[in-house]
Structure formats: C-alpha cells, structure tokens
Design brief:
Structural class: alpha+beta
Largest sheet: 10 strands, antiparallel
Shape: globular
Strand order of the largest sheet: 1-2-9-10-11-12-19-16-15-14
Radius of gyration: 28 Å
CATH topology of the largest domain: Glycosyltransferase
Low-confidence stretches: 490-506
Strand content: 25-35%
Number of strands: 44
Helix content: 25-40%
CATH architecture of the largest domain: Alpha/alpha barrel
Oligomer: single chain
Mean pLDDT: 94
Length: 811
C-alpha cells in the first residue's frame, strides 16, 4: 500500500498521512548547516559536524519514536494540535507533508484553522527558516496561541548524551526581545552560539525544559501550552530549551504569517566576547535582518529552488518510463548530493556521533555526484587523500569538522586504498583536470610530509601489490567492503591453537573481491599514469593487473562462480566446499564488471549462479545459504540472524554491481530486472512491507531467510545511491565519461523504447537521442554528432565546444 504519491512536476513526494510505517525524512542544507526533518516534524540540526556542533537534541530508539523535533503547538480553546501531528498526535481534519528538494512543507487543519509550515535551509546562511502561515477558514473570529519548541544540545552530541554530572551545570541562555540565545559554554572556550527567533513580538517565552513541559511530562503534553502561558523561565544549568509564545487573533478568512529562524553564529576569535561571558550579537542580528518578512523568505526559497533546478539539469532523461525518469532526474541525484554532504555520519540510523566521514564511503559517493559539483568533488578528494598513511593505507573514517582521521576506528580495511583511485579517476574523466594529480597532499594531515596526489595513488596501488597472501590474492586485513567479513580474527580448529594471524606470521586471509577491484582500478590507475606521461609506470601497473587477473582465474574461481575469499587458514569462503555461505554476491558483480572471466566464458556462469542461488523478488541476497550458527573464523558476518545485514540480507549497495555486470555481457533485460527490484519508484506500492521512504534507496532489505522478508533499513546514507546512479546513467542508459570524450553504449531491456538525454560534460551540453528500431538490448549501429558520423562509441571531446547534437542508433 501507499502512504503518499510522487509529484514529479514539483519534484516532491507528498505524504498524505502522518502514520507512515517509519518516520520518513528529508535533508535540508547544501553547504555547512544541515537539518534532518521527518514527516511529523521530528529531527535535529547541526553545523558541519553532527557530533561536535549539534544544535538540537534527538533521542534515538525512544518510545514513542521520533523525539525530538522543532515543534509548533497551536492552542485553539481547549484543543491543542501540531501542524506535523507529533508530538501531541491530535487527530487532524487534514494533513499533508511535501518533502521537496532541500525543503519540506506541512499543510494541516483543525477546527477550521489551517496551518502551513515551510521549512528550509537557505543557500548562503547557517540557519533553518520556518515560515508559519495560519488561516482562519471559519465564519467567526479565532483567538489562538502558538508555542514554538526546540531543545538545545550542549554542542558535543556524544558528551551531551552521557556526561550529565557536568552538563547539568553548564546550560546558559539569554533572551533579548523575540530572540533566545543558546550560549552554553561560550564563556569557556567557544566562539560560537545558537539562536532561535521569531519575527514578531512575543507574549512570553521559556528556556527551562521542566518549566515548559512540566515535571514528569513529555513533549506530547506540555504544561505551559495546556495553561496557555509560558513562564518566562531563564535556564541556568539543567536542560535549556527555546520556546516562544504568540497570541494571535484571526478574523474570518484572514491569514497571518510568522518567520522562525534557528541559527548558528560563529564569531572570529578576536570578537569572541564583548566582555567576559557576554556574546557579540552583531552577526546574529544581521542574520535575522535577512529573514524579517515573507518577501525575504520567498527570495531565499527561490534561490534554493533555482540552485537545485540548475544542478539537476546536468543529467536528465526523457523516456517512456516515468519511474526511470523521476529517479534519474530527481531523487537518485538528490540522494547522491545528500550522501556527499553526510557520508554515513547523520541519519535516523546513524547518530552522528560515531562514524564521521568514511574513506571508502566518501570515495564511492563521489562517483554519483562528481558530474554535479566537480569543484567540491575535487576538494573532497584532497580531504580524503590527506588521511592516508605513507604505506598507502588510510584511516577508515575521519571527522568532517577537523578532517582528522578517526583513531578509534583506525585502518586495516584493505579495500580502502583502491577507492581513492576510483574517485580520482572519476573526477579526472569527468573534468579533464589533471592538475589535481600534481597537488601536494599530506599524509595523515601532516603538512610536513606531503607529496603529489599521483604519488598517493601509486601508494594505494602498491599497497595491494605489497600485501598479497599465499594464493597471490590481496590480503583482506580487518575486512574489505564487507566490514563484517573478519577472517583474520581468533580461530580455533582441531589441532591448532587459539590465535590471531598477522601479515608476517603464518597464513593470512585473502579477498577475491579486492582482487576484482584491483583489476578494474589498476587499469584506471594506468590510464592516469599515461595522462601524466609516465608510460613506464603504466606498463608496470598493467603487468601487475595481469598477474592479479591470472590469480583470480587460478584460485578465485570455484567452477560455477567466483570464490569470495580465503580465511586465515587458507580455507575457501564462498565456495561449494562450504557448508554455509557457499556463494557471495560481491565477487560475482565486481569481477565481471571489471571484465574478469568475460572472454573465458566464466562471467555468464557466475551471473547465472547469482540468479539461481541469490535472487529474490526484493533483490539479490549477499550470500547463501545463510549462516545458521556463529563461525568464529569468519567474524561478525555470522553474528546476525539469517536474512539480516551481511548474513544473507539484500544489500542494495551491491545489487548495482551485478546489474552493471549484466550490461558488460549485454543482458539488458536482466540488468534492468535487477535495477527495478531495489528502485524506490518501483516498490512504492509495497511501502507497508518495505517501510522506509519510497523516494530514496536503503542500505539493506531483509533477505528470504528473515522473518520480515522485504523490510528495509538504513535509508538515505548508503553507497546504493551513487552506485545505482552509476549503473542506470552510465551502463543501462549508457553515457560513460572517458578521458577522451563521452562514450555512449546503452544496455536496455527489450521494449524500453527510444529515449532522449541531456548531459553536461565539461563545458559542453550533449543533447542525445537514442533510437532502437531493432529493439536490441545492446549494440551500436551508428552515431552522428551534429549530423556527421562518428567511429566507435566515444564522442571525441572538443575543447570550447558548447553544444553537441547526438543521434545514436542501436542495432
């Protein structure tokens, strides 16, 4: 069943009931200030870093769920209600939430009063703006009271959640007119503070949580709202909040509007305070002056919409399939931009406290957004490379504010180095900018030890060359892409002692998946070497790739599919020899998309095995059979119940690898079949099963062995977004950026029909028309550019040329 519908014309998903299976959220913010907002107004805000600069509190896994948020309470006589339904949950006469691109709009009504709330983060300010419009649709005058409510976080979200003996004594606020200043810890060591303000005279305020809610009460029954009056409480320690009270009279048919601004202010160090503990409010007032009126809000909102319109116009498709068009043109690219901003740091599944920015994650995400914001992609590559160590390995995660590696997680994930090559290659192919390769980049953010980025890539490449196991396959380290496949952990076998194997002592675990990565990205490294004129290094790289290719065929092939790995005792993982976990998805997809086994006829066998053994109606499972007991020699992968996460769940992230692999061997029907199974627009009708948002991808869907087969988890922040966009845009629709120009070679299902594409590539706009008179899945009969035939599939890049009119005939 559905809980809403797509409004493609307005690029919105319209939610028609607040009672969705899970909170369905949106992300607000494009630069440094971000908010998460659910369809019932839950969520939180932060500046740059969800751990270190959190403005408002959110309580994960709380009951009832989705607490806290930024709430507006409307008191109409004895009736109290919220435009977003929560937290009071009064039955509404009407309700609608429109999640748009960078904004959300709520329109609800109760007892002939309509409330409309538009919430967004402006392009060029560190604040969230909420415009409330109240309309009296009755024939009588209405007297209302409106109460705002946010609960401040004491900046460091981790410390805020546990260091109560200190934090209960640090809360500090100031109220000036209609502006509430959150200046907790400002006197100590900070040069920033937060504000919550409204552009109207207020009848009262509260800054003490207990004064507003009442003792032993929650946000669902605030005492101040029940009584109809705030208490003008001034927080000192304990739990600081911000609440405004507005008393409003509406004539029949009248509408009144109010603008609430939640903002972050950072003063230069020399302006930290006017006197001890007294904040400099100049920048705060300047910010509020920019949102005084509805006209100001409308201008800022128009700027936001214009930004997204221009950004999303860089790749558009027009086909006979509206679901493909809406995902490609709107939601998939939008989600790619959210993963650019957040990596895996802040969602309704990631608390913002632990992970920060992922090395592997951010490199993969780049594949999906580099065409949209190449300049910022360049900055991101430098940030990522700066966390690398001199041996080519890297911190697995880093904090977005400090850009320092996360020492709690450390390194040892041996796929990480190759993803840096993948991201850099994608950037150079997209932009033609080779100057990034000569940029000086530090190791471990130590500027005294810096080398050109190209040297970082060489060390990434050589890390794999220098870390191979007994089968000449790459060492897996702590894990590869599958974080739960921990094959060098403590193991006990008959006649063998309990021990941990390291790279210099005895047999060590190897990854066939990393081997497939090495074949693909080793070739891309060689191409970058050629661009830089280093033909000798390119030749060396290709020799190493050939050695790895042969090692995969020799010891990575199991007869009908690729082996997943070798454990610390050189026992196969993901083999018919195994009792459980006989086949894994990762090497089948990645080895074939890298071209391994194609000419030998093995690729088709591997993909047929995927269809036979891993496929379900909800997507391709990560492994089968599921592990029914804990295998200590395999690590965390077998710690999950069968069908969940890495133990035979459906990872939407690696389904695109198999779909891409199918395009490599020309099977468009099968590639598109896989694409559809995890594509939100195609599974909107089963939202009661899937549960997560029907407009964005989730990381995982419960597999066939799970009790709740088909239920999704971990939406929004997932490499699924980038890889699915790569799959559909570069392989199914077939427009792939190369160093010399755009390659056009679609692989579509029979019956897909003709389609048109607009693709911005470097300074050129490519207007591409693909016709398929023979209804083939793959194959190019001819390509013309501006009416002239082109040999092959690559449209040569011409520097300075602004428009390319391209006709592609499949056949």
């Amino acid at each position: 069943m559905k809980f809403g519908y797509f409004d493609d014309a307005n690029r919105e998903y319209v939610i028609t009931t607040p009672k969705t299976p899970l909170p369905w959220i949106n992300y607000l913010g494009c630069n440094d200030f971000f908010s998460l907002i659910s369809n019932t107004c839950g969520g939180y805000s932060f500046y740059k870093d969800a751990k270190l600069l959190r403005l408002t509190r959110y309580r994960y896994n709380d009951v009832p769920m989705d607490i806290n948020g930024k709430y507006l309470y409307i008191k109409d006589g004895d009736t109290i209600w919220n435009p977003g339904w929560e937290p009071v949950k009064t039955d509404l006469d009407s309700y609608e939430c429109r999640h748009g691109i960078g904004y959300s709009r709520f329109t609800s009504s109760k007892n002939d009063v309509q409330a409309s709330v538009l919430t967004f983060v402006p392009m060029n300010d560190t604040c969230e703006v909420s415009q409330l419009k109240l309309t009296n649709n009755s024939s009588e005058e209405k007297t209302l009271s409106v109460f705002s409510y946010v609960e401040w976080c004491l900046w460091n979200a981790d410390d805020d959640s546990r260091n109560f003996q200190r934090n209960y004594s640090t809360g500090e606020v100031e109220v000036v007119g209609s502006t509430i200043f959150h200046k907790t810890e400002y006197r100590e060591r900070r040069n920033h503070y937060a504000i919550y303000s409204v552009n109207a005279e207020i009848a009262g305020f509260d800054t003490i949580r207990e004064a507003f809610l009442g003792s032993y009460r929650g946000a669902y029954e605030p005492e101040a709202v029940e009584k109809g009056a705030c208490t003008n409480s001034m927080a000192s320690g304990w739990q600081p909040i911000a609440s405004h009270q507005l008393n409003i009279t509406l004539a029949p048919g009248e509408t009144k509007s109010y603008v609430f601004v939640l903002g972050y202010i950072e003063n230069p160090e020399e302006e930290k305070w006017e006197s001890y503990g007294v904040i400099n409010k100049t920048r705060a007032y300047a910010m509020l002056d920019r949102y005084k009126t509805d006209a100001d809000v409308e201008k800022a909102f128009a700027e936001l919409n214009d930004y997204w319109k221009k950004l999303l116009s860089k790749y558009t498709v027009k086909s006979s399939n509206d679901k493909v068009d809406r995902m490609v043109n709107i939601w998939n690219q939008y989600q790619c931009m959210v993963t650019f901003n957040m990596s895996r740091s802040a969602s309704y599944y990631e608390s913002g406290i632990g992970r920060g920015m992922g090395f592997r994650d951010s490199c993969q995400d780049l594949l999906g957004f580099v065409h949209l914001i190449p300049d910022r992609a360049r900055e991101r590559i430098i940030d990522i490379a700066s966390t690398q160590f001199q041996d080519g390995s890297a911190y697995h995660q880093y904090q977005p504010l400090t850009k320092k590696g996360n020492s709690d997680i450390g390194s040892g994930f041996n796929d990480d180095p190759l993803w840096l090559i993948a991201g850099t290659s994608a950037y150079v192919r997209e932009t033609g900018d080779t100057t990034i390769l000569t940029d000086m980049v530090p190791f471990d953010n130590d500027e005294s030890v810096a080398t050109p980025l190209m040297d970082h890539l060489k060390r990434s490449f050589d890390y794999i060359v220098n870390h191979k196991g007994p089968h000449k396959l790459p060492l897996i380290g702590r894990a590869d892409w599958n974080d739960c496949l921990n094959l060098n952990c403590f193991s006990e076998h008959p006649g063998e002692s309990f021990q941990t194997f390291g790279p210099s002592e005895g047999p060590v675990a190897e990854s066939v998946f990393i081997a497939g990565m090495f074949v693909k990205y080793g070739e891309e490294y060689a191409q970058l070497c050629e661009l830089m004129g280093d033909t000798a290094e390119a030749e060396r790289a290709r020799k190493e790739v050939a050695i790895m290719y042969d090692a995969i065929l020799k010891d990575g092939w199991d007869g009908e599919w690729f082996v997943r790995a070798y454990d610390a005792y050189s026992h196969k993982v993901g083999s018919k020899e195994c009792e459980e976990g006989q086949i894994y998805i990762e090497p089948q997809g990645f080895c074939v998309l890298a071209g391994v086994g194609v000419k030998e006829g093995l690729a088709e066998k591997a993909l047929n095995s995927v269809k036979e053994k891993l496929d379900t109606k909800y997507g391709v499972m990560i492994l089968q059979p599921a592990y029914t007991r804990y295998h200590v020699e395999l690590g965390e992968v077998s710690s999950y119940p069968p069908g969940y996460k890495e133990n035979a769940g459906i990872f939407c992230h690696n389904n695109p690898w198999v779909s891409i692999a199918e395009t490599v061997i020309g099977r468009g029907d099968r590639a598109f079949e896989i694409y559809k199974k995890t594509c939100p627009a195609y599974i909107e009708d089963i939202s009661e099963v899937h549960r997560t948002e029907p407009y964005v991808y989730s990381q995982m869907v419960a597999g066939a062995d799970a009790k709740f087969f088909g239920e999704a988890k971990n939406s929004w922040l997932t490499g699924t977004a980038a890889w699915t966009f790569v799959n559909v845009s570069q392989y199914i629709l077939g427009v792939y950026p190369t160093h010399t120009g755009l390659s056009i070679n679609p692989c579509v299902p029979k019956g897909f029909g003709d389609f048109e594409l607009t693709r911005q590539f470097r300074e050129g706009s490519y207007n591409i028309k693909v016709v398929n008179p023979d209804n083939v899945e793959k194959g190019i009969k001819s390509i013309t550019v501006d009416g002239k035939p082109v040999e092959g599939c690559v449209i040569p890049y011409v520097k300075g040329k602004e428009t390319y009119d391209v006709v592609v005939t499949m056949g």
